[in-house]
């Protein structure tokens, strides 16, 4: 007997012992149970954490089994993304959601649009996680509701084969609920604040939390200047805080993504505590820029002096009170950060880079894997990169090294549309197309994400509509540019009443009120125009 039929039988037997529940239909109860597979956010976190752990093992065995996600700033956007994935690709396997702190700051703060500097309300982070999963669970209920209606029609027409097929589809239904990698920034405070926020995020459904090694109250976007890192001991305390939150809540497979901004961060707020030469604090301090001194006479009022490499070092300190790192030390600091994080509880790495260059990423990962052989990355395929220019310049440089004639190209102007039809541009586009697969194979990238793509798609589509609608095209701008495409491309949202839950509401009204139910889906519903 199928699981669906077993649930019907269970409720049938239950209702026999509840004499006052005669109006309850056991099949309707089974349907509502199936439409709500996940009762709490912790159920979701445990389910999705297991998915991530399995995916990580599969990637270790085969680098072509990498995973992907897009950043979504609203539950509806996440829902439509997963509906699209199921429609076009048949399965949600290895497709996740990314929750971007940048997009929360820019789009979800009560202060209005903010820069990515941890100034938005920390409560908005778990709130968006909960919102995303609310919409994904509704996508489950909507799709199953459609199957139930088809099942009723098949039974009514006596088509037992089709009815059996639909029962099988219900039993093997694939949920829209997938893992979320959620951005906790630098923890929004000290390690206790990090723990408290992590708990709220996990309770909302997060199975993977990404945390960065910047100073919490100096946090900057990873692709902006002015980043300030913290000593390893401070960062590891926050990793521990997140792990304790996972364990306390029973999400033992919870995933921690340790992000390092050291490649682009030239500053630190504090000198690390060190107890003996060569310890972690001493290694951190060894990157400080400064001057070795011989005597107290070389110390000015307010100077700080540390012992490093057996000598007295006077680190360079800015007017802000921050200390500088040595120029060119970024990559070495990244490698140390990553090894340290993995050896102290992190599961995945995130290296924030200034360009999407596989060779650069692979060089760092190879060094990390000398200490941690199965090290793997979450990588930001960031909209902050000019992908077209970057890859055209990479091809230009490779061709130049091969001695090809490049007299027809201006390297600094390769973004120009005049180059679009050239062989160089075509090769660059081919490299962009295969970037994720190539980087997964060559640079240890397990998960590819784009932090804020739907921010840009919303802006672009709105611009196209506004340009035409308020111009000569008028209503044709919407009809031709939006609705006609929705109909012909099978976008479920063309029936927006259905997507918003109208049909589900009708189903429930029938469950609750029987023939007395006042439904919205009758002959006068204009959604019927869409078939």
Automatic annotation (TrEMBL):
Keywords: Lyase, Magnesium, Metal-binding
Pfam families named among the record's database cross-references: ICL (PF00463)
BP GO terms, sorted: carboxylic acid metabolic process
Active-site feature positions: 221
Cofactor or coenzyme needed: Mg(2+)
Binding sites annotated in the UniProt record for Mg(2+): 183
InterPro entries according to UniProt: ICL/PEPM (IPR039556), Isocitrate_lyase (IPR006254), Pyrv/PenolPyrv_kinase-like_dom (IPR015813), Pyrv_kinase-like_dom_sf (IPR040442)
GO MF annotation list: isocitrate lyase activity; metal ion binding
Cofactor binding note: Can also use Mn(2+) ion.
Catalyzed reactions per annotation: D-threo-isocitrate = glyoxylate + succinate
Gene3D superfamilies linked: Phosphoenolpyruvate-binding domains
Matches recorded under SUPFAM superfamilies: Phosphoenolpyruvate/pyruvate domain
PANTHER family in the cross-refs: BIFUNCTIONAL GLYOXYLATE CYCLE PROTEIN (PTHR21631:SF3), ISOCITRATE LYASE/MALATE SYNTHASE (PTHR21631)
Name this protein carries in UniProt: Isocitrate lyase
Source species of the chain: Bowmanella pacifica
């Amino acid at each position: 007997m199928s699981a669906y039929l077993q649930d019907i039988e269970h409720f049938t037997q239950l209702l026999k012992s509840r004499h006052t529940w005669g109006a309850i239909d056991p099949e309707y109860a089974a349907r509502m149970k199936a439409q709500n597979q996940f009762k709490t956010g912790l159920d979701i976190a445990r389910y999705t954490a297991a998915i991530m752990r399995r995916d990580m093992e599969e990637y270790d065995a085969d680098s072509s089994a990498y995973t992907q996600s897009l950043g979504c700033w609203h539950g509806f956007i996440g829902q439509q993304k997963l509906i699209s994935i199921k429609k076009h690709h048949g399965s949600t396997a290895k497709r996740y959601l990314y929750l971007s702190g940048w997009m929360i700051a820019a789009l979800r703060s009560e202060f209005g649009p903010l820069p990515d500097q941890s100034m938005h309300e920390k409560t908005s982070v778990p709130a968006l996680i909960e919102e995303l999963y609310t919409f994904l669970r509704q996508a489950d209920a909507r799709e199953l509701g459609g199957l139930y209606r088809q099942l009723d029609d098949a039974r009514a027409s006596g088509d037992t084969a089709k009815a059996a097929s639909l029962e099988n589809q219900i039993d093997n239904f694939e949920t829209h609920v997938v893992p979320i990698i959620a951005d906790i920034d630098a923890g929004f405070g000290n390690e206790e604040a990090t723990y408290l926020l992590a708990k709220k995020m996990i309770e909302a459904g997060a199975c993977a939390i990404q945390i960065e090694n910047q100073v919490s109250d100096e946090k900057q976007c990873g692709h902006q200047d002015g980043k300030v890192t913290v000593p390893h001991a401070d960062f590891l305390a926050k990793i521990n805080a997140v792990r304790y939150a996972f364990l306390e809540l029973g999400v033992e497979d919870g995933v921690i993504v340790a992000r390092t901004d050291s490649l682009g961060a030239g500053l630190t707020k504090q000198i690390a505590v060190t107890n003996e030469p060569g310890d972690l604090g001493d290694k951190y301090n060894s990157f400080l820029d400064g001057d070795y001194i011989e005597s107290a006479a070389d110390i000015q009022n307010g100077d700080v002096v540390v012992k490093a490499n057996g000598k007295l070092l006077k680190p360079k300190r800015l007017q802000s009170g921050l200390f500088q790192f040595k120029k060119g030390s970024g990559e070495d600091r990244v490698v140390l950060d990553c090894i340290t994080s993995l050896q102290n509880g992190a599961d995945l790495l995130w290296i924030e880079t200034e360009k999407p260059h596989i060779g650069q990423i692979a060089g760092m990962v190879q060094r990390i894997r000398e200490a941690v052989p199965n090290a793997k990355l979450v990588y930001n395929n960031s909209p902050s990169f000019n992908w077209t220019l970057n890859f055209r310049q990479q091809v230009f440089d490779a061709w130049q090294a091969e001695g090809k004639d490049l007299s027809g190209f201006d390297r600094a102007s390769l973004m120009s549309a005049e180059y679009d039809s050239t062989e160089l541009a075509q090769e660059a586009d081919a490299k962009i197309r295969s970037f994720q697969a190539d980087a997964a194979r060559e640079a240890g990238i397990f998960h590819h994400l784009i932090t804020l793509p739907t921010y840009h798609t919303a802006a672009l589509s709105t611009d196209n509509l506004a340009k035409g609608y308020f111009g000569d095209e008028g209503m044709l701008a919407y009809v031709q540019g939006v609705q006609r495409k929705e109909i012909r491309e099978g976008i479920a949202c063309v029936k927006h009443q259905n997507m918003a839950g109208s049909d589900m509401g009708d189903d429930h009204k029938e469950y609750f009120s029987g023939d007395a139910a006042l439904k919205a889906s009758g002959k006068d519903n204009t959604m019927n125009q869409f078939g």
